[in-house]
Specification:
By secondary structure, the chain is an alpha+beta fold. The strands form two sheets. Strands 1, 2, 3, 4, 7, 8 and 9 form a seven-stranded mixed β-sheet that branches.
């Protein structure tokens, strides 16, 4: 983890979290699943106002699952990223916008070259405010999306989140060459461009 992220993560641990997306002096938490958590973490780390990101597992049955267990598809978890953010600098609604254009929301139980329920997309909401914001965002997107396929990404209540093994955290920073090779080889950015056009992340 970079020095800045270490400090940010320590700050996040000390300050109380506000679960909703409304303006608050506290930090807030959001959880998104978008396929490989290495990529989702890298995407949200670019957003001003994001304090920390943690790769992990959510939505399954097995307590404290390992990467090998989740990868087998036997636990019901999906790879996800827990985002701690400062609502004074970035809104939950903005994070939703970032999420949508960084995933393929038209497919179930896969993302790009990764296939299986452990790579499904999802917005895991922490309270009623987030649920309403997520549903409104999805409804708007259905009307404005630049592709014909329906959006199948579910909005679900957040359940227990289990941080992934340390070697997965900040993988794109620790292993930049391998990460870029994986992301390119998986066709992630090419598919995002195909789906979202000018809205695709640069």
């Amino acid at each position: 983890m970079s020095a800045g992220r270490v400090v940010a993560a320590a700050l996040a641990a000390l300050l109380p979290l506000a679960e909703g997306g409304a303006q608050s002096p506290a930090l807030a938490k959001a959880t998104f699943a978008g396929g490989c958590f290495w990529c989702v973490e890298a995407d949200f780390d670019k957003v001003d106002g994001v304090v920390s990101t943690t790769s992990g597992y959510i939505g399954g049955r097995t307590p404290n699952p390992t990467y090998e267990q989740v990868s087998s598809g036997s636990t019901g978890h999906t790879e996800a990223v827990e985002v701690v953010f400062d609502p004074r600098r970035v809104s939950y609604e903005k994070l939703l916008e970032v999420f949508w254009v960084n995933v393929d929301p038209t497919v179930s139980d896969r993302q790009f070259c990764d296939i299986g329920s452990q790579y499904r997309t999802g917005i895991f909401v922490h309270d009623e405010t987030q649920r309403r914001a997520a549903e409104a965002s999805k409804a708007r997107l259905e009307k404005t999306k630049p592709f014909k396929a329906p959006i199948v990404t579910p909005i679900e209540p957040a359940t227990a989140f289990y941080p992934a093994e340390q070697y997965h955290q900040d993988y794109y920073l620790k292993n930049p060459v391998r990460y870029r090779f994986y992301r390119s080889g998986c066709g992630r950015d090419a598919r995002l461009k195909e789906l979202w056009g000018d809205k695709a992340p640069k």
